[in-house]
Amino acid sequence: MNFVSDARLLELPHHVREDGEVVVAEVMAHIPFTIARLFTVRAPLDTERGKHAHRRCTQFMICVHGAVEIICDDGSGKCVFTLNRGNLALHVPPGIWNTIIFHKEDSVLAVLCDRLYEEEDYIRDYDAFICFRQGARL
């Protein structure tokens, strides 16, 4: 079972020039899994999204525009990560509850996953998440 200490903030390589910036995230060099799915999330200022955990899915999050705060929770501890630069990424392993707060207007969060969408993989109720965590420790 993973814990919040297993969630990792990473600084991705970026190359800045006068005419812009390129951020690089390569599979296995930076993203520790083969990508099966990518989606983006945009939400109004101060909106909370996420508010769920995955049983099996690993996520790699990059705020490609704006700023978001991601609160990771393993049922006994929490850790807050801020993605406010395009070259910061957060690796979130399975079994971690996450809540995403959008701190700038028009922020866009890109999420890369190691699994396709599977509704049964989601734990959307916090009490059910706590039961999952306790059952996994037995």
Provide key terms for this protein:
12 strands; Jelly Rolls; mainly beta; 138 residues; five-stranded antiparallel beta sheet; 9% helix
Distance between the termini: 11 Å
Please state the average pLDDT score: 95
- Per CATH, the architecture is Sandwich
Number of helices: 1
Number of domains: 1
**Overall SS class:** mainly beta
State the major sheet.
5 strands, antiparallel
With strands numbered from the N-terminus, the spatial order across the biggest sheet is 1-9-6-11-4
Beta-strand content estimate? over 45%
Helix content: under 10%
Q: Please identify the top-level CATH class.
A: Mainly Beta
Task: Describe the protein in words.
This protein has 138 residues and is mainly beta. It has one domain: Jelly Rolls. It is 9% helix and 46% strand. Strands 1-9-6-11-4 form a five-stranded antiparallel β-sheet, with no helix packed on it. Strands 8-7-10-5-12 form a five-stranded antiparallel β-sheet. A two-stranded antiparallel sheet has the order 2-3. It is globular, with a radius of gyration of 15 Å. The mean pLDDT is 95.
